Amino acid sequence: MEEAAVAARRREHRRRPLVSAAMDDTERRAIEQDCARLVALYANRNDAVDWEGVAALYAPDGRMA
């Protein structure tokens, strides 16, 4: 594929909405609340030097570097 075509494809990909049109406001808000809760838990456990608690927030195969 030609370089200009690849660049155009990348730009088009960035313009796509991150939220699916099929997602309603209630579902979107629930996801946002879950994300906010996860960030708060991470910050609180990190501040408390609770490394086991921080690790528990990751997926089982996740890694913290």
Please summarize what this structure is.
The protein has 65 residues and is mostly helical.
Q: How does this structure look, described?
A:
There is one protein chain. With 65 residues, this protein is mainly alpha-helical. The protein has a domain at 23-65. The chain contains 3 helices and no strands. The protein has helices spanning 3-15, 25-47, 51-56. It is flat. The two termini are 36 Å apart.
Quaternary organization: single chain
Shape: flat
- Given the helix and strand composition, which structural class is it? mainly alpha
Span of the ends, CA to CA: 36 Å
Number of helices: 3
* Total strand segments: 0
Q: Give the low-pLDDT segments.
A: none
**Fraction of residues in H or I helices:** 55-70%
Average pLDDT: 83
Proportion of residues in extended strands? under 5%
Order of helices and strands: HHH
Largest sheet: none
Radius of gyration: 18 Å
